[in-house]
Amino acid sequence: QVQLVESGGGLVQAGDSLRLSCTASGRTLSNYAMGWFRQAPGKEREFVAAINWNGGVAVYADSVKGRFTISRDNAKNTVYLQMNSLKSEDTAVYYCAADRTYRSGSYPSRNGAAYEYWGQGTQVTVSS
User: Fold this and answer.
1) Strands 78-83 and 115-118
2) How far is the C-alpha of 122 from the C-alpha of 48, rounded, in Å?
3) Dihedral, CA of residue 49, residue 53, residue 56 and residue 61, to nearest 10
4) Helix and strand numbers, DSSP H then E, in the chain
5) Considering only CA atoms, which of 86, 94, 90 is closest in space to residue 21?
């Protein structure tokens, strides 16, 4: 059984930084693209960032480009989301997800439907 567990969320001030981690059990992540998504209260889940299976390509939502960085450490079976210059509009529950397709191509998907396994989420709250 595959489990993804996020950690690192919390309450911070605008302008601060946080690093989220997502660690997998039950599956080796190294051959799968990974993504981060978020959902704010009353809003639909939205794409944040994704990284392809070998870490060579990362894609970002326009709203976080230049502030967030996704990375992976396949030896630790962990994916990270470094979030800098946080804004109040970044407040949401953040979820990591694992692609359903083995080595799914050069570019990771921005579409949640491409991801098969999801973590339980970690709350990020940014006060202004």
Assistant:
1) unpaired
2) 14
3) -10
4) 0, 11
5) 94
Phi, psi of 31 (to 5 degrees): -105, 15
Average pLDDT rounded to a whole number, residues 41-60: 95
**Residue 45's pLDDT band (cuts 50, 70, 90):** very high
**Pairing relationship of beta strands 122-127 and 115-118 according to DSSP bridges:** unpaired
Distance CA(66)–CA(93), nearest Å, equals 20
- Are 38 and 28 contacting, i.e. CB atoms less than 8 angstroms apart? no
User: Which tokens sit at 63?
Assistant: 């709203």
Q: Name the one residue in this structure whose structure tokens are 């509009």.
A: 89
Name the amino acid, one letter, at 33: A
pLDDT tens by residue, 60-104? 999 999 999 999 999 999 999 999 999 999 999 999 999 998 888
